[in-house]
């Protein structure tokens, strides 16, 4: 069964049969302590039903991204520790080798591009869950959802490449000023953070291309949804990470 | 996915497809066990070389020749890395869950079988990269398993610090990726693949412990990757994250920025301390299950035990600073870390006291796995009691660089961890082979190991209190203030040799029992948890530890047993 028809098993049970039968019974857990819903046996363990696979993959990608978040948190805390590191010279003067960096203005444009790509990605993702299209695809009457989503996916891809190109230009601009990876602690972090994020984005673009191919090649509608959905969550997360990293690089010099 | 599922059930396939290139969690568990066995063999050999060298420093050793001081440090580094990553992490956190996790929650399959297989192969690659460090020019790295900069950041700092150190970093980076992939798989499996009726309060405590350790793995290993990346940048791209200004190594000034070695310590121990819990929490979960099984008593305070596991995991993320009391960290931070460290003794004591309460006047069956579990308990208490001592910054200042710390963590982490692993292997061996391990050999293995392990690690407390430093390669030489400790050291070395020899009994037992051990039957330990169920249960209605019903013919209700009609 395609994933959008039923949100929850309870929903089907609640539906009016339309033949004047008994009114539907609300079997949703009320959360109260009245004993009506504390029958542990009726609680599903994990999600069963049409969205089972989707939620499994979603959960997987979200856990992996939680680990990734810790990776970036470690880099950011290293940024702050390194910023406050210094030493005293022979005359008891505190010396810090941290020189604030003027961020190339193109980063603002890059950020806007990345935000835009998040938007196109989300539009693409929603096409795969558009109920009527999904139903047609599931019945094998063509691939309207895929056809609608593909241009948005390609747009996301193009925007992602544009963002990476913009980051590359920013690196070139810094290098033209004589600021390289090893120049000073601040440039270490600028290159490291943008580089680490850029590698993640390159992986994201590969994931997008994979999802794009998967949409046309995979036979199960469900798997097509999963490919696009997981890529979208990854892409959004990278966008959010970038927002924070951008704020860090611009305002916490 | 579909392919993996059929591969699991299809036994007609060839050896390669069935045991090597497989996504079947059962085969992957066996692969992990073999990998850990190889690692533990090498690691033990290295530790024996170290022990022998300490007491006879001028005698050439077999396979090795004369041990130079830097060779000794390389042995220390590789011993620690092999044991901590490839034995004490791989077995409890990868091999055991692959063997029993899906069965215990009534799932047919892991959530991501191929991810799981990929994790194994990356782990194997990581082990090969690590071992290859022995054979590159300069040999293995010498800066200890924690690899503090600036020594680890400067290739000129020692013979193994060039290529050897790079290999170490690459190996650990790979290991982190593998551990994270495996943890994602376990977490999703536990959250989504439980069978009907397997509610949170019916999960065996081992599953609870894997849930906690998987979360810890996710959070801690990611930070280690970041640390490894930063250190590689320092080594190869001329950055200055960790090397302090004016740092003077091997006659050369190498520091060109205000890098902070403390930063590495923070990042490393933010990983390193949760790592301790990653290797010991599954043992604690297993202890609850096994003690319940062999005393035929339910686990009292199931919810308390589960929440204590979670609490230990949470607190375990907040105590990393207690490894750094003597590192020049802010003393106020030291006080805070001392507090959180002592707080962790509370849930740990709750666990220990519950186990003791279960043992108290219980009808205990002294099977080999139960004996090893008692050994775990004994080491956990003996090593744990020196924990609050070392958690005091003042006392730690004196003891930190002495053998007292070596004694502490070898008892509470290494020996307790290894004994819980042995308990698990003796207990779950029938799942792998359908046969029981030999009890007589097992008991001989246990008693010799127990006595030899105490003989090895307990006297180290006294050596440490006498001030014996833990990073020196010899006690004699120009300064022989510690020569008086040599007799004690000799005793320790003899006990260590005995401890290693006792493991030969285990190996023999393993080989013999795998081929012609006693057939185990369906449920040899009369256990309640689902890994012993004859068939996959569609729906379960019972808790994990329903023992001690003496009125009926069997004194337990297994989880897969159908609910009685009248209920």
Automatic annotation (TrEMBL), chain A:
Positions of transmembrane segments: 57-81, 101-119, 149-169, 189-218, 230-252
Bias type Basic and acidic residues, positions: 8-17
Tagged with keyword Glycosyltransferase: no
Ranges where the Heme-copper oxidase subunit III family profile domain occurs: 58-253
Gene3D superfamilies from the UniProt entry: Cytochrome c oxidase, subunit III, four-helix bundle
CDD domains reported in the protein's UniProt record: Heme_Cu_Oxidase_III_like (cd00386)
Any Gene Ontology biological process: aerobic electron transport chain
Subcellular localization(s) per the UniProt record: Cell membrane; Membrane
Sample GO molecular function, one term: cytochrome-c oxidase activity
Keyword terms: Membrane, Transmembrane, Transmembrane helix
Domain of life: Bacteria
Region ranges (Disordered): 1-47
Classification via InterPro entries: Cyt_c/ubiquinol_Oxase_su3, Cyt_c_oxidase-like_su3, Cyt_c_oxidase_su3-like_sf, Cyt_c_oxidase_su3_a-hlx
Keyword Signal: no
Membrane topology reported for the UniProt record: Multi-pass membrane protein
GO cellular component: plasma membrane
Family (UniProt): Belongs to the cytochrome c oxidase subunit 3 family.
Name under which the protein is recorded: Heme-copper oxidase subunit III
Organism in which the protein naturally occurs: Paracidobacterium acidisoli
From TrEMBL, chain B:
An annotated Gene Ontology molecular function: heme binding
Origin superkingdom: Bacteria
Gene3D superfamilies hit by this protein: Cytochrome c oxidase-like, subunit I domain
Protein localization: Membrane
Domain (Cytochrome oxidase subunit I profile) ranges: 19-558
Listed transmembrane segments: 27-52, 72-96, 117-136, 167-191, 203-232, 276-295, 302-320, 332-358, 370-391, 403-429, 441-462, 482-508
InterPro entries: Cyt_c_oxase-like_su1_dom, Cyt_c_oxase-like_su1_sf, Cyt_C_Oxase_1, Cyt_c_Oxase_su1_BS
Keyword annotations of the record: Electron transport, Heme, Iron, Membrane, Metal-binding, Respiratory chain, Transmembrane, Transmembrane helix, Transport
GO CC annotation, single: membrane
Gene Ontology BP terms: aerobic respiration; electron transport coupled proton transport; respiratory electron transport chain
Family: Belongs to the heme-copper respiratory oxidase family.
Topology in the lipid bilayer: Multi-pass membrane protein
Name used for this protein in its record: Cytochrome c oxidase subunit I
Organism name: Paracidobacterium acidisoli
